[in-house]
Design brief:
With about 675 residues, the protein is an alpha/beta fold. The protein has 23 helices and 22 strands. It has a seven-stranded parallel beta sheet with strand order 12-13-11-14-15-10-16, with helices on both faces. Strands 17-22-21-18-20-19 form a six-stranded parallel beta sheet, sandwiched between helices. Helix 13 links the parallel strand 14 and strand 15. Helix 9 packs parallel to helix 10.
Length: about 675
């Protein structure tokens, strides 16, 4: 008898070769196949052209009133054109690169065509010629080479016929199913693949989303509860007087938000519970100063601290800054680009404990790095490191406290919900004396005026970044690439300014030396792709020009803008863009109106979703099967509330309902 864990090859009609192709979609067992849901549905119900919105995909029926005309152009490209009459309306239809359809088109015959509607031209771009009008919804699955929609649907139907669905266990307790009026698991799986109508599909989707987000939140809440009750963390009993004296001697005063965040971090460090905190702060808000004082607190208690950053140049920048702040301490730097002698010396000092603070790249987590007494681990731009990299650093030493920092502003409610296993500290004010960056949006036609203004600013001693979204030409995107831009600007400035170029295809050494030259003012204009996005501090750079700025999301534009305004001089961000969409125009407008990263993050959430804010899977946020933490925020928040309620009950894991949840947590686990 087939079970949910039976391999696909045990299903009728699926041989080893087919099973191999399915494995590319991460479908290994019968259960995987049943849980491989469509990502959308096509509604194949025929519609009147008067009901269809411009740009919408729909099925249009009508009578063929002109012979089909097949035109060839370019290499192996062709277009099939004909006219269709629906009622009194005559519609132009085009099929691209489907010449074989010509033989199926008989003058006067009734046709059903699925395509994309253009209301301005009264035209349909055909996608599929249907054998007949279908009155149901057709699932659309993500595919891979060798697996077609038809073969996938056939395999799923075979899995349904095998009877395995009937034996699949329920994964949500009845108390939650009743409370939220959810479909049972079997009903939901059936309706996800073969819904009777749209309403039934939406109910199935609601159940599946709730289940995913509920288990995500249960994972977070259980982790958090275990950490809170775990008294095996380090109690870093720092010297309060020493720390207060150090804070008073700093060349700047901490803002209220910095003080509040530092107090929260210090409180965690003193307790026996293990610290796992996220420090969020806008670009230039002074996260590093807070992290430095936390490292000093660890030193005063006799512990080492390690700060891991994504690039060598950032490591050097932090090393210089810590050395200036704490000249009395021994501080080591460790990067993979170091010479062997220097690296061996640093490793020896770290091992024997003669250095109190260590700054480095992922070289800090190599196997040969042994710490003497590691008490505090800090990762900067935490989303740049994979979950595993962060874990390896955490496992160095005896369960050190962990602080993660990010300059990517995430709305507080979402941060608390999405990073539920962490405590969140937010620095939401800029240090005194920082002048807000003046942001202007100009069209490409105004670029000459911008360059003329830039020339005058450079003569006064300013430096500028000029950002290009692409490295080289792309036929499909009409963008100025970095190389062409570099050549153009070099020609424009001739002998009046030194122009340098940096892009992602260069080695780390090349990038570092170009950045170093810019930092030392040996070049005045740095043309770059977005590789300069993260944290390098060049106080003299006061101008940021972003070409084709409408190609970026708000969060990325804000990160780029944050490369200037690092000193006390007035800084400027110039967005050069001719946006064609309303959304592009809206982004440009918002950027000129606000310099608050949290305001922009909220707007970005609404406009572009979570990908822009959390970046890739690296962030530790899982890729859900169907849920989206932005679109389904209401479900996510309810799942957090109920999960938190369950875990906060005494002996919750002894109750029958929640024991089932605990067992399933292992299967739904998203963390290492």
């Amino acid at each position: 008898m087939l079970s949910e864990n039976s391999p696909l090859t045990e299903l009728k009609g699926i041989g080893p070769k087919s099973a191999e192709k399915f494995q590319q979609l991460e479908i290994f067992t019968v259960a995987d196949l049943l849980l491989y849901f469509p990502f959308r549905y096509e509604d194949y119900k025929a519609r009147s052209v008067f009901e269809i919105q411009d740009g919408e995909k729909a099925v249009v029926t009508g009578t063929l009133v002109t012979p089909a005309n097949l035109q060839y152009y370019g290499r192996q490209k062709n277009r099939l054109c004909f006219k269709l009459k629906q009622g009194e309306v005559v519609i132009s239809v085009s099929f691209f690169n489907q010449p074989y359809l010509k033989d199926k088109l008989q003058l006067g015959s009734e046709l059903a065509i699925f395509g994309k509607w253009d209301s301005k031209k009264t035209a349909l771009t055909g996608i599929k010629l249907l054998a007949q009008v279908q009155e149901d919804m057709q699932p659309v699955y993500r595919l891979t080479q060798g697996v077609t929609q038809a073969s996938l649907v056939k395999a799923i139907k075979t899995a349904f016929e095998s009877g395995v669905l009937e034996r699949l266990p329920e994964t949500l307790p009845q108390v939650l199913i009743d409370k939220y009026r959810l479909f049972s698991r079997k009903e939901a799986i059936t309706a996800m693949h073969f819904p009777k109508d749209l309403a039934e599909y939406k109910q199935a989707l609601r159940r599946v989303k709730f289940e995913e987000l509920f288990y995500f939140q249960m994972n977070l809440q259980v982790l958090k509860a275990r950490r809170k009750s775990d008294q095996h963390g380090l109690a870093i009993v720092y010297d309060k007087e020493k720390l207060a004296a150090k804070e008073a001697s700093l060349p700047f005063s901490l803002t209220g938000a910095q003080k509040r965040s530092l107090d929260e971090i210090l409180q965690d460090m003193r307790s026996r519970s293990h610290m796992n905190r996220l420090l969020q702060g806008d670009v230039g808000s002074g996260k590093t100063a807070v992290a430095s004082l936390a490292m000093y607190a660890a030193y005063s208690a006799g512990f080492q601290s390690a700060l891991m950053v994504p690039t060598e140049i950032l490591a050097e920048q932090h090393y210089e800054s810590l050395t200036q702040l704490f000249p009395e301490l021994s501080i080591a730097i460790l990067t993979s680009g170091m010479k062997k002698v220097a690296k061996d010396t640093a490793l020896e000092q770290i091992r024997e404990g003669s250095v109190q603070m260590i700054v480095g790249t992922h070289a800090l987590i190599q196997e040969n790095v042994a710490y003497h007494k590691l008490g505090l681990v800090i990762t900067d731009e935490q989303h740049r490191f994979g979950v595993n990299q962060r874990r390896v650093l955490r496992e160095k030493g005896e369960n050190p406290d962990v602080l993660m920092m990010t300059a990517t502003p995430i709305p507080r409610t979402l941060a608390i919900t999405a990073f539920g296993e962490m405590d969140v500290s937010i620095i939401d004010e800029l240090p005194a004396g920082r002048k807000p960056i003046i942001t202007r949006w100009v069209k490409h036609q105004q670029l000459d005026a911008v360059l003329s203004w830039l020339k005058k600013e450079l003569e006064k001693g300013a430096q500028a970044y000029v950002i290009s979204p692409l490295i080289e030409e792309s036929e499909s995107l009409d963008l100025k690439n970095a190389t062409a831009l570099y050549e153009e600007l070099s020609h424009y400035f001739k002998d009046s300014a030194e122009v340098s170029l940096m892009h992602g295809r260069m080695s780390a050494e090349e990038k570092d030396s170009i950045m170093q030259a810019f930092k030392e003012q040996r070049s005045q204009v740095l043309v770059s792709t977005t590789v300069i996005e993260v944290g390098v501090n060049v106080p003299n750079a006061t101008i940021m020009i972003i070409m084709d700025a409408d190609r970026f999301g708000l969060s990325q534009l804000h990160q780029l803008r944050g490369r200037v305004g690092r000193g006390d001089k007035q800084s400027y961000a110039i967005l050069v863009a001719n946006p064609k969409t309303d959304s592009g125009k809206e982004r440009m407008k918002i950027m000129t109106e606000s310099t608050d990263g949290f305001v922009l993050a909220e707007a970005d959430l609404k406009m572009r979703g979570s990908g822009e804010i959390f970046g890739t899977r690296q962030s530790g946020i899982p890729e859900f099967r169907v849920a989206d933490i932005i679109e389904d925020y209401a479900i996510l928040e309810e799942a957090r509330r109920v999960a938190s309620q369950i875990v906060s009950q005494e002996n919750w894991d002894k109750e029958k309902d929640w024991q089932m949840v605990l067992k399933n947590l292992k299967e739904h686990s998203i963390f290492d």
